[in-house]
Design goal:
The chain is of the alpha/beta class and 334 residues long. It is built from eleven helices and 15 strands.
Length: 334
């Protein structure tokens, strides 16, 4: 795969020009972004792959849900349905996508969870509800410039910083690095625990934020407990198990489990993998399966796995959280 990326390098300038030109059309209002009269917060990235959008959306939900009626709007990647879908009791990971289904399972009593590949259409449908949302969170919509989000949060991972990368197909960037200029906040995610102030200062200098941009650093916090649909186990009590992942980058999770001295084998699947019956037949031979919360949403309905399937939750720990929350509230406050 890496070799193929290298031989496709001549396409890089073409991709760069196309995406750069598209952005300029929006920058100069030749193509028009639609603005709305309610707070819309966009969480996204410049690169493909996992940068921690899902835990960041959950952080925002937790921060705002007690004071505002929140709606999340996602594309619903790899879902079996089309058009606008509002999550309800009959929704599944297949019908609305694994990440939106995760939001719904965790926060269904507090928020709306919707999917629509056309974000303008999705927002219009949300605003047609009898009880309208007061804040909309756009998941993975940084390049969806048909909507003018009032507050853009750009995520970049500590181990794959966007300013060290190039655009597709040789690199991982969806658009040129200059796209970072649209962000109100840039968050360096998945930082090592105890990242030094010197390291943060160096990265911030390399980012070169504009005067109106703030840079924050976050890390992943793993729970000390794994959960099934009706039980839980302390990590320290886990017997040898099989780790099953279908996420963009499982390395941080694998390293965390190793630091705990746990014995496990790892079965790694592609990101957003749709598990098949034959996969389940192989997995059911294991006595204990640990997976991510996102993968749990796609596996939990397989009856043969219910008694042995557990997930490990994660949360985001944000440095200077008070400063970030103040910026957030200043934007959302009417």
């Amino acid at each position: 795969m890496k070799f193929l990326r290298y031989i496709l390098f001549p396409i890089v300038p073409v991709y760069f020009i196309i995406t750069w030109f598209r952005n300029k059309l929006y920058d100069y209002n030749i193509k028009v972004s639609k603005t709305y009269n309610l707070p819309i917060i966009c969480v996204g990235n410049l690169s493909v792959g996992g940068t921690g959008k899902t835990p960041m959306i959950e952080y925002l939900i937790s921060s705002l849900k007690n004071d505002y009626k929140i709606a999340t709007l996602s594309r619903g990647y790899k879902r079996s349905t089309t058009g606008f879908q509002l999550a309800n009791l009959s929704s599944t990971a297949s019908s609305i996508g694994d990440e939106p289904f995760q939001f719904y399972c965790k926060f269904k009593d507090d928020i709306y969870v919707a999917v629509d590949s056309n974000r303008q259409n999705g927002i219009a449908a949300l605003l047609d509800l009898n009880i309208k949302p007061e804040v909309i969170l756009l998941d993975d919509a940084y390049q969806h410039r048909k909507v003018n989000a009032g507050f853009n949060i750009l995520l970049t991972t500590y181990n794959r910083l966007y300013f060290k990368d190039i655009v597709l197909p040789t690199g991982d960037l969806r658009e040129p690095k200059s796209g970072a200029n649209r962000a109100d906040v840039i968050i360096v995610t998945k930082c090592p625990e105890g990242i030094s102030n010197l390291d943060k200062e160096l990265i911030t200098k390399q980012i070169k934020p504009n005067i109106n941009q703030s840079v924050f650093f976050s890390s992943i916090v793993y729970s000390d407990t794994v959960f099934s649909e009706n039980s839980s186990k302390k990590i320290t009590d886990l017997k040898p198990f099989t780790l099953v992942t279908g996420i963009a980058n499982a390395s941080p999770l694998v390293e965390f489990l190793k630091t705990k001295g746990l014995q496990f084998t790892h079965q790694n699947f592609p990101d957003h993998y749709n598990f098949k019956v034959e996969d389940v037949l192989r997995l059911e031979k294991n006595d204990l399966i640990i997976t991510t919360e996102k993968d749990f949403m796609r596996l939990k309905d397989f009856e043969k796995l219910k008694h042995k399937l557990f997930y490990l939750p994660i949360t985001v720990k944000l440095d200077n959280a008070e400063q970030f929350n103040n910026l957030l509230k200043q934007f959302v406050k009417p």
